[in-house]
Amino acid sequence: MGENALTTPIVELRHVFKNYGDTTVLKDIDISLEAGKFYTLLGPSGSGKTTILRAIAGFLSVSGGDVMIAGQRVNDIPANQRDVNTVFQDYALFPHMDVFDNVAYGLRIRKVDKAAIMTRVQDALHMVRLDNLGDRMIGELSGGQQQRVAIARAIVLEPKVLLLDEPLSALDAKLRQDMQYELRELQQRLGITFLFVTHDQEEALALSDEIFVMNDGQVQQSGTPVDIYDEPINHFVADFIGQSNIVRGRMIADYQVQFNGKTFECADAGMRPNEAVEVVLRPEDLDITALAQGKVAVRVDTQLFRGDYYEIVAYDDADNEWLIHSTNPAPEKGLVGLYFDPEDIHVMRFGESEEDFDARLESYEEE
Which residues are in the ABC transporter domain (predicted)? Predict the structure, then answer.
């Protein structure tokens, strides 16, 4: 029994669908969250990430599939009886109450005795470093302090899972970065599961133990930040996570890929011989070198100084655009070489049907 408790996911979505009339906004979602980790749902607006959060919280019903919390199916259990709590984008704090009363509100609704409320609220405020602000009104707080009050109000109820719906989006850039550190540290101190929604790729990469990349109501890829960044599974993930150079190529054989009219060693294998593929090279993995030492020849078009690196845009003979991040400037409008190692090349399948593949391969041969 103890072993099952350890292996049971704290949250699980099994083949979950959500329809609004004829529109399907969640398509066969399978997600499993372990206890005590920081997870992120990452994707553009309309990708379905907030719908997943609301389905777990109980704010909307699913059209199909099961929502499980700690091994229990909760589809028919109302939101106030689920062992989760939500921090909303606008914080939803009560402006007519002070900080203490905002945090204590949920405990009073649950009829917890006064002594226990005092202790638990003080503990929650200490957790978010607001020990001395219990008597402040909400309007007297900064944006970062209000965000911490919202988190304290959620964690004081001791949920198994804390759901965070873009809680940093209203903060300025510097405060947002500071709060990222605080959120991660808080999650590790509390040891409870965080499920965080954002459209900010850098935020997701910095905070998460695991990321679910969403698009068009589906999970495109899940994995650690390093896996997602270094091994994108398709064009959308490669293009959405960070910055990428994506060019069309052909997998000649295991560990050999052809693009830009040349064959290069790479670290990928397991595809069909001569399969049409897409090749990903990250801007920071490209080194500008003399033309003779380069693997690809490009002509520099523009470059911008970004503080700790130069962002350089260049074009090859096939008019492919190349984005390069370099610590040194490139020659103005000059012809240079690009050098990269085999492990810097990531090869992706197109992810299409056999018929579509054959049609694409035929058109590729004709070009």
Answer: 11-241
What average pLDDT does the chain have?
89
Sheet containing 161-165, strands listed edge to edge, beginning at the edge strand earlier in sequence: 84-87, 161-165, 193-198, 38-42, 210-215, 218-223
Residue 236: inside a domain, yes or no? no
For residues 324 and 316, what is the distance between their CA atoms, to the nearest angstrom?
13
CA distance 249 to 263: 10
Q: How far apart are CA 63 and CA 26, in angstroms?
A: 9
Cα-based angle 183, 4, 61 (whole degrees, multiple of 5): 60
What is the tens place of the pLDDT at every residue in 100-152? 999 999 999 999 999 999 999 999 898 888 888 999 999 999 888 888 898 88
Residues 261 and 335 placed together within one structural domain of the fold: no
- Backbone torsions φ then ψ of 177, nearest 5 degrees: -65, -45
Tokens 């490009």 correspond to what residue? 298
Rounded average pLDDT over 273-292: 93
The pLDDT value recorded for residue 365 is 46
Average pLDDT, integer, range 59-70: 95
Beta strands in the chain (DSSP E): 11-20, 23-33, 38-42, 64-69, 72-73, 84-87, 161-165, 193-198, 210-215, 218-223, 245-253, 256-259, 262-265, 275-281, 287-289, 296-305, 310-315, 321-326, 335-339, 346-348
110 assigned to some structural domain: yes
| Residue 342 confidence (pLDDT) above 80 | yes
Structural domain containing residue 273? 244-280+345-367
Percent over 70 (pLDDT), the chain: 93
The pTM score is 0.84
Interatomic CA distance for residues 20 and 18, integer angstroms = 7
In 3D, which of 281, 265, 255 has the Cα closest to residue 342? 265
Total number of domains in the chain:
3
Sequence-ordered list of residues with C-beta below 8 angstroms from that of 261, at least 6 positions apart, any chain: 318
| Contact predicate 26/13, CB 8 Å | no
